[in-house]
Design goal:
Elements (H helix, E strand, L loop, with lengths): L8 H5 L7 H6 L3 E6 L22 E6 L5 E5 L8 H13 L6 E5 L16 H28 L6 E4 L2 E4 L6 E3 H5 L3 E5 L24 H5 L15 E5 L8 E6 L1 H4 L4 E7 L2 E6 L2 H9 L2 E5 L9 H7 L2 E9 L2 H6 L3 E9 L11 E7 L2 E6 L4 H12 L6 E4 L14 H13 L3 E4 L2 H6 L7 E9 L5 E9 L14 E8 L14 H19 L3 H7 L5 H14 L12 E8 L2 E12 L4 E14 L4 H20 L5 E2 L2 E2 L17 E8 L10 H19 L18
């Protein structure tokens, strides 16, 4: 029997013989649950979980002859605690010990295909499928036991990994024994009933991370740790600045360097493969490259550049007649809000190992989207997707930054060229400079207030960051949000919450601005306009009560700020307490209170960890993180020039989760992340009376006398 939490994918990482999906499905013996994800499955007591569009029918769960339960799911573990929570869901529905469950994630030969489920929403989407598969397996083995004993299905109880005869508890049979000797497959036709929340013994309770000991003991294996026979090491030629085009490259000297296996050049791609990483790096430096640099962008013109290139993409959240309401308002309030590009800054830089294996190629890579990488590698190499296998080992942080397949594609291209496994990993400078960033944004907000202090009109123009989180949760009778597509001077792509954090920053700071101009309490203004959004109203009221927030008319000098946001099906309210050293403008966030709704909370400890991480990440974005660039050159290529929060700077964090066991699990903590920066900005106004509308909230603007 394997130890608790053991994962067969470790065999694959060592080049061993982990079963592929085809081999697994052909194996004799065991209970296998298959279904097409195109059909929605019932969620726990509260409607239907959103379907994941998958084109084929794949196995999601298996009960082996040894009684072990194996869960197969497409979304890798990237720090969101998914492996443990999926095990809890499966064990709960099967009434089996948590230690009897193994979870295989992110191996395209072994798990169902996905349609690009993000890590933050994996539990609410993939978790629903795993839970349903476990419920189906429970009904299958219960029916098998009932047939064996000649009793109705209702006469069988599933508990502690066994089928028990209800009329005689001394008569029981293990799930593995029921599964043994026969291969039993069930394709779902009618969803099996899910276990009611009142009967849960594992879901809703803390459970230690299955893979936690491996991380703590340094035994977790990342893509850069994969070592295969005849492994080689690669480096890729980088342009001197963004947007430069390669004119020619003299590679003869590099190819003649000791230990160099090959210099591969295909169009504007140049890579060096050597027997050691230092030899690949030295050979790369000897390449004489000529570049055509073209125009260069600099951060000083960022927001002007976005405005000048803007094209209307869509109008959303349109209600009433905004222009008429603005014209008839007693008072109007307008302001612009700015957020810069931000780096993902994971601890583990991008890395991939590609290994040619006959007509196939296997790629080990840290990513959130293994099937997207499989498609990209197959297209780049002109291979059928089924000839490409992507395996995701441990991932040292992603935050949306490892969706892009460039490193996997480059490693595969080089491996095919040399016919040997190739490890390609980025340096810290490459990681911070040559991947995509969180989109920068400019958001213009106009609103009009009636004689009674009601916000009658809300008009927002959102440049470059998209529509996510742009629709206000407030019941403004007249509203409109226009979303503009812009030409970004830097590469941009998926990021935790995408534009949700920028849109929440603009909305929540502007709402505080209106409240202060009206001389009203900002929480009271929010509640007055939250009619119809019961979830958001619930967390706002709970946060105000828990904090002891009474009628406040900022600026009070006390340094407390409030904000709320919604994302990934969840909503959160945040109160931040800050101190400002007036002479230097230095800001210290002393305390953060978070109240978040959680739906069905699978693992409370894990959810709290996700929220704590979101708080610290949000503080970095609020106070210091910004990608700086001049003449097309990234200036923030290290943690020294792009500082992220440290443990010493972390505030006291109080978390209140409002569970709703009758509804499905919700997004982890992105709503909290989106609410942090506006809460801090509003707290700074409360402390010093200065309204800051641009991130990061630079200390220079808070100094005494400025």
């Amino acid at each position: 029997m394997k130890p608790r939490g053991a994962d067969d994918s470790s065999k694959d990482e060592c080049g061993g013989s982990g079963l592929t999906r085809r081999e697994f499905l052909q194996a004799a013996g065991g209970v296998v649950v298959l279904f097409s994800i195109a059909r929605p499955l019932e969620a726990g007591g509260g409607g239907s979980a959103p379907p994941t569009a998958v084109g084929d029918i794949n196995a999601w769960l298996r009960i082996g002859q040894d009684g072990r339960i194996t869960v197969f799911a497409p979304t890798p573990e990237v720090g969101q605690g998914l492996r443990t929570e999926l095990a809890q869901l499966a064990a709960e529905e099967l009434s089996a010990p948590l230690s009897s469950v193994d979870v295989i994630l992110g191996d395209t030969d072994r798990v169902p295909a996905d349609a690009g489920v993000s890590a933050s929403s994996a539990l609410s989407t993939i978790g629903a499928k795993v839970r349903q598969a476990a419920a189906e397996a429970r009904e299958m083995v219960a029916s098998m036991a009932a047939e064996r004993w000649g009793v109705p299905r209702a006469g069988v109880v599933i508990e502690d990994g066994r089928a028990v005869l209800a009329s005689d508890p001394e008569t029981f049979v293990g799930l593995g024994e029921l599964a043994g000797g026969r291969r039993l497959v069930r394709r779902l036709e009618r969803p099996a009933p899910l276990k009611p929340a009142a009967e849960h013994t594992l879901v809703g309770r803390p459970a230690p991370a299955i893979d936690g000991p491996a991380y703590v003991r340094g035994k977790a294996r990342f893509a850069g740790d994969v070592r295969l026979p005849d492994l080689t090491y690669a480096k890729v030629l980088r342009a001197p600045c963004l947007g430069a085009k390669l004119v020619r490259a003299e590679t003869g000297v590099a190819a003649a360097q000791p230990g160099v296996i090959a210099v591969v050049q295909e169009d504007d791609f140049v890579g060096v493969v050597a027997v050691r990483p230092d030899l690949a790096e030295r050979a790369l430096r000897s390449i004489q490259a000529t570049w055509e640099e073209g125009e260069h962008a600099s951060i000083g013109s960022l927001y002007q550049d976005l405005r000048q290139s803007a094209e209307l993409e869509q109008e959303i959240a349109v209600r009433g007649d905004v222009e008429t309401a603005l014209a008839g308002a007693r008072q109007g309030y307008s302001a612009s809000y700015r957020t810069p590009f931000a780096a993902h800054a994971p601890i583990e830089p991008h890395a991939a190992v590609a290994s040619p294996q006959g007509e196939r190629i296997v790629v080990y890579v840290g990513t959130e989207r293994p099937f997207g990488h499989r498609t990209a590698v197959a297209e780049a190499l002109g291979m059928p997707p089924e000839k490409v296998r992507v395996i995701v080992p441990a991932v040292g942080g992603a935050f949306g930054g490892k969706d892009g397949p460039d490193v996997a594609v480059d490693a595969a291209r080089l491996a095919r060229a040399v016919g040997r496994p190739v490890l390609l990993s980025q340096s810290r400078v490459e990681e911070m400079s040559w991947n995509y960033f969180r989109p920068a944004a400019v958001i213009d907000v106009r609103c009009g207030v009636t004689e009674k202090g009601e916000i009658a009109a809300w008009d927002a123009d959102v440049f470059n960051c998209g529509s996510r989180g742009a629709e206000p949760p407030y019941a403004f009778p007249n509203q409109r949000v226009r979303v503009y597509r812009c030409n970004s001077p830097l590469p941009q792509g998926p990021w935790r919450g995408l534009g949700g954090s920028a849109n929440a920053f603009a909305r929540e700071v502007h709402l505080d601005y209106v409240a202060s101009e009206l001389g009203e309490d900002p929480v009271a203004v929010r509640l007055r306009h939250l009619r119809g959004d019961a979830g958001m109203e619930r967390v706002v009221r709970a946060a105000a009560e828990r904090y002891g927030w009474h009628d406040r008319r900022p600026p009070t000098g006390l340094g407390a700020g409030f904000a709320c946001a919604a994302d990934d099906g969840s909503c959160a309210a945040v109160v931040a307490d800050v101190e400002v050293e007036r002479a230097s403008g230095q800001v210290r966030v002393r305390r953060v209170l978070v109240v978040q709704d959680g739906g069905l909370v699978v693992n409370p400890d894990n959810l709290r960890s996700q929220i704590e991480g979101a708080v610290v990440m949000g503080l970095g974005l609020a106070l210091r993180e910004a990608v700086r660039y001049e003449q097309g050159r990234i200036l923030t290529g290290s943690f020294a020039s792009y500082p992220v929060p440290t443990f010493r700077e972390a505030p006291s964090v109080e978390i209140v989760v409002l569970p709703d066991p009758a509804s499905p699990p919700r997004g982890g903590a992105t709503a909290t992340l989106c609410a942090i920066a506006p809460a801090v900005a509003n707290a700074l106004f409360d402390a010093v009376g200065k309204r800051l509308r641009e991130l990061p909230l630079a200390s220079v603007r808070l100094r005494a006398g400025t």
